[in-house]
Amino acid sequence: MTISKEAVWEMLNSIPDPEVPAISIVELGVVRDVKVEGSSVIVDMTPTYTGCPAMKMMEDQVKAKLMLEGLDVKVNVVFKPAWTTDWMSDATKEKLRAYGIAPPDKLSFENLHPFAKSDKGPLKCPFCRSENTALTSQFGSTACKALYFCNECRQPFEHFKCH
Amino acid sequence: MTLNDALKEYCLRIADNSSILAHRLSEWSGHGPILEEDIAMSNMALDLIGQARGFYSYAATLEGKGRTEDDLAFRRDTREFVSRNLVEQPDNKDFGTAMLRSFLYSCLSYLQFRALMNSKDETISGLSAKAIKEVTYHVRHCGDWVVRLGDGTEESHRRISNSVEDLWMYTSELFEQNEVDALLVKEGVAVDLNTLKQDWLNLVDEIFAQAKLTKPAEGGYQSSGGINGMHTEHLGYILAEMQFLPRAYPDAIW
Description:
Oligomer: heterodimer
Structural class of chain B: mainly alpha
Order of helices and strands of chain A: HHEEHEHEEEE
CATH class of the largest domain in chain A: Alpha Beta
Largest sheet of chain A: 4 strands, mixed
Number of strands of chain B: 0
Radius of gyration of chain A: 18 Å
Number of domains of chain A: 2
Number of helices of chain A: 4
CATH architecture of the largest domain in chain A: 2-Layer Sandwich
Structural class of chain A: alpha/beta
Distance between the termini of chain B: 35 Å
CATH architecture of chain B: Up-down Bundle
Largest sheet of chain B: none
C-alpha cells in the first residue's frame, strides 16, 4: 500500500508518550522527520535524554503502529539538532499542566551554567497555581522531571525540566 | 596515527569514563541514603550510560570492524580501558565521597562538552549538545551536596574533608593528554584540556569556598596514566562485575 506523509504524522500523533501519556510522541518533539516511499517509511527520532529508557519503547511503538498498517518501517535515531523542551508548543505545555506536571519554561543559555541563579521567579503549582513552592529534588521519577512540593495545597508535583 | 584512529580513541575515552562512573553510581541503586537521592543517583547513572552508548556506538562505527557498542563496553579488558582513574575509585558506601567524585568529574565533563558543542565533527557536536544539559544538572546536584556536607555538621565536614584528601590525587590526571588530543585539537575536533584547567579550578573553588573545604597542598602524589590503560586495582573488580553476564553467556541479548 502507499500512504501520504500527513497520514503517517497523524498516526504517530496518536502514540502517547509512555511516561507522560497526556501528550503524544509528536507533541513531545521526538519525531523529527518522516520520509515516505511507496510502502516504505523512514522515521527520524531523537532521544529526549541520551539514556532515556523510554526511547526504545517509543521506537517499538512507532514500528508496531506502522507495521500494522502494512508499512515497511525503519527508525533512524538522530542526535543533531539536540532535543529541547522548546519544541513543545504552548498547547502541549498546557496539557502537561492539566495532567499535573509543571511545564518547562523557555530554555535560556544562562540555565546551562551549573551555578546559575534563575531569574524566572518561583515555579507555579500545576494544581492550585500558587507560587509558594519548593524544590524537593533535581531528579524525579524520570530523567526529564524534577520533584517539587507546593506549600499552599500541600501536594508534591513534578516539573518537566527545561532542557 | 590516522585521524580516524584518534577520533575512535577519543570517543572511547569519553564512553569509558561515562560507563565506569555510571557503574559506580548504579551501585547505589536501592541503597541511597534517602529515596530522592536513590532516584537522583540512578538518574545520573542513566544519563551517563546514555552518553556512553552514544560515544561507544560512534567509536564502533569509526572502527568499522563490525564490533558494537556492547562489544566495546563488555569485551575489553582493564588495560584497554582509557578512562580516568578518578571515576573508578570506590566510595566504600560513603555518600559524600560518591558526590565529590561525581562533582570533580562532572565539572570537567561540563566544560569539555561545552567546548565540544563547537567540534568540527558533527556527531561529536551533536552528542555533546545533548550531554551538556544532563551534565549541568550533575554538577549542580553534586555541588549542592558537597556544600551541604562541607558546611553541615562536624561529622559531615570531617568526612567530606577526608573524601577530598582521598580523591584529590586523581584530579591532575583528568587533564592528561597524548598524541590523540594533539592531532584532534589541530583539526578542530577536540578541545585542548589545558585550556579548561583554570575554568575547572574556578568551579571547584566556588563550591569548596561555600562548603568551607580546603584543597590539599600542591605537590602531593598524583595518579597518572588512565588514558594509556594504566589503572588502579579497582577497575578490574568493576569490570569483573559489569562484564560477567555477557562473558559467561556470550549469546545473551538485551
